[in-house]
Amino acid sequence: MDPSCLKRIDDHRWELPKTGAMRVPGVIFADEGLIRAMDEKVLEQVANVAMLPGIVKGSFAMPDAHWGYGFPIGGVAAFDADEGGVVSAGGVGFDISCGVRTLLTGLTRSDIEPVKRLLADTLFKRIPAGVGSTGALQLSPKEMNAMLRGGARWAVENGYGQREDLARIEEGGTMAGADHATVSEAAKRRQRDAMGTLGSGNHYLEVQHVVATYDHAAATGFGLREGGIVVSMHCGSRGLGHQIGTEFLREMTVAANAAGMTVADRELACAPVHSPVGQRYLGAMRAAINCALANREILTHVTRDVFHTVLPGARLTLLYDVSHNTCKVEKHRIDGREAELYVHRKGATRAFGPHHPDLPAEFSEIGQPVLIGGTMGTASYVLVGTERGTSEAFASACHGAGREMSRNEAKRHWQGRTVVDELAQRGILIRSASMRGVAEEAPGAYKDVAVVVEAAHNAQLARKVARLEPLICIKG
Amino acid sequence: MSRGFSALEPVKLSMPWEHFRHGADVGVRGSGVSRAEAFEQAALALTAVIADPSHVHGEVLVDIRCEAPDDEMLLVDWLNALIYEMATRDLLFGRFAVTLHDHVLDAKVWGQSLDRERHQPSVEVKAVTYTELSMAQREDGTWVAQCVVDV
């Protein structure tokens, strides 16, 4: 993208002035290098989102923004329901509540190294990962509905996970307002064998070590210290979320056409919050958030079980759990008044600054942990939410690096076995059911996550706390 | 519906199906002498996102029927129906026979249970997006069906 298309506000803020049908300006948070590397389509999508009814303040793009569907990936927009504001299935995406959670282990690298191979093999055996994998848990229709209502709290009440985990999950582990009656039988059917599965593609479970801390007070508050071992996982609401996204995108598109409502891109199909379809979508989307939270809680339970077997005495506690693809009702200050808004984050992480009422008490002075996933050969990051990010960008930050290279290009460049062998020489054990999948996910196929994190840090959307590097990766 | 084809990349006639690039995901494109053939080839491109279609045998037959307001929504529904059948029956599909009457599609599709060793599936397809979605006839009379799928 040519930076001259934008108005430079400062080194990390670029404005797309309001023109034509745009109701608000666009703002991209990135340094000049990221702007130059960014697809032109991001600008078009930021502008399209800015045209949606009821949007307030701005159409935002995070430093890792790239060409998405309707919204850019890395897009953030908030809508005022009382001003005709909309909810958009395309603005949330298909993998509803896909997110990252990180567990602290209290272990150090010297504890892990002697058992690393056994730990990798046992995790791979126990964590259902990749295309066609199935979970051990099959829910009856009644149990499915209870899970969709209760999320991670349901999981804990049914023996998966620990009660103290809940405060460390967005929404306390249960997304309120979920309505299982708005979730189709097809979506529930698609979830039948998928509870407690990791998924495929860029989903993973990693054992990582903390290689650097940047903000010692926040790192200490989060329980992170250099040399410490953590476990991070990236996965979402599985088939249920995909099916809900599919069905409501279609319904909103057809309804918009029938009503003569024009949107700049079909994928932006949306419905007023105050409409029957808007309300049904919110009920189903929240149920999918609960599905994702329950799924990550079950995977946490299995992970704890594996650690208990391989490293008896290890106690895994939850640092935090963040979701990337959501629409949530949040209070934000707009023009000096507090407004209740429907905040869409599509490939963006919520990042509450200090003193936000929704933070657990122990993080109130620090801010929310912001977990940024990386690749199996590079690094992940922990950041912390800031007051500036909270007031400027509806408390949002980046979510990951984004791909540099297509899957087909990656397959042509690398062989899965070679990637696995090279990473093993660097002390990173990869376990995957598909070598073709490993080739497509080769670290070199991704952009440099450190550059994205640096931009988020410099823009003060979130502050760098720690860098994590993988030792074991169970690849979905 | 017939209109000029204006995708980002030219379609190679020697390739009845192919993938095209979209950021983090994959574009699937099928072409043929009829709309039905373009739909069949787009379905092959969909399978190829997951695994090599030539490794998928036709052991199981599934019937699919879709109806949509226009050709493009029909393409979305068709590919989404395949995604749903693959996800819920643990199948991969390698052969497709599509019949179209206006905006109603009837298809017979043949596939095989997913075998992780044999098929080496790399990624599951989550859904069909409306990005780069088009169903169009080229000047030489051939049809092209395409869209981006989310993986």
Description:
- The complex is a heterodimer of chains A (476) and B (151).
- Helix content of chain A is 34%, strand content 27%.
- Chain A has helices at 32-37, 40-50, 89-92, 109-112, 116-126, 141-150, 152-157, 185-191, 216-222, 238-258, 276-310, 387-392, 407-413, 416-425, 435-440, 449-458, and strands spanning 7-10, 13-16, 26-29, 55-69, 71-79, 86-88, 99-108, 204-213, 228-235, 270-272, 317-323, 325-334, 337-346, 349-350, 369-372, 380-385, 396-397, 429-431, 462-475.
- Chain B has a single domain (17-150), classed as Archease domain (Archease, Possible Chaperone, Chain: A, domain 1, 3-Layer(bab) Sandwich).
- In chain B, a hairpin with a 2-residue loop joins strand 4 (91-101) and strand 5.
- The radius of gyration of chain B is 14 Å and the shape is globular.
- The A-B interface holds A 39, 41, 66-70, 73, 90, 93-95, 130-132, 134, 186, 189-190, 192-193, 199-202, 239, 242-243, 245-246, 249-250, 253-254, 257, 265-267, 269, 402-403, 406-409, 433-437, 439-440 and B 19, 21-24, 26, 49-51, 69, 73, 76-77, 80, 83-84, 87-88, 90, 114, 116, 120-124, 126-131, 133, 148, 150-151.
Present the secondary structure layout.
The complex is a heterodimer of chains A (476) and B (151).
Chain A: E1 7-10, E2 13-16, E3 26-29, H1 32-37, H2 40-50, E4 55-69, E5 71-79, E6 86-88, H3 89-92, E7 99-108, H4 109-112, H5 116-126, H6 141-150, H7 152-157, H8 185-191, E8 204-213, H9 216-222, E9 228-235, H10 238-258, E10 270-272, H11 276-310, E11 317-323, E12 325-334, E13 337-346, E14 349-350, E15 369-372, E16 380-385, H12 387-392, E17 396-397, H13 407-413, H14 416-425, E18 429-431, H15 435-440, H16 449-458, E19 462-475
Parallel strand pairs in A: 3-4, 18-19
Antiparallel strand pairs in A: 1-2, 2-3, 4-5, 5-13, 6-10, 7-9, 7-11, 8-9, 8-19, 12-13, 14-17, 15-16, 16-19
Helix pairs in contact in A: 5-11, 6-11, 8-10, 10-11
Chain B: E1 17-22, E2 25-32, H1 35-50, E3 60-67, H2 71-89, E4 91-101, E5 104-113, H3 116-119, E6 127-128, E7 134-137, E8 143-150
Antiparallel strand pairs in B: 1-2, 2-8, 3-5, 4-5, 6-8, 7-8
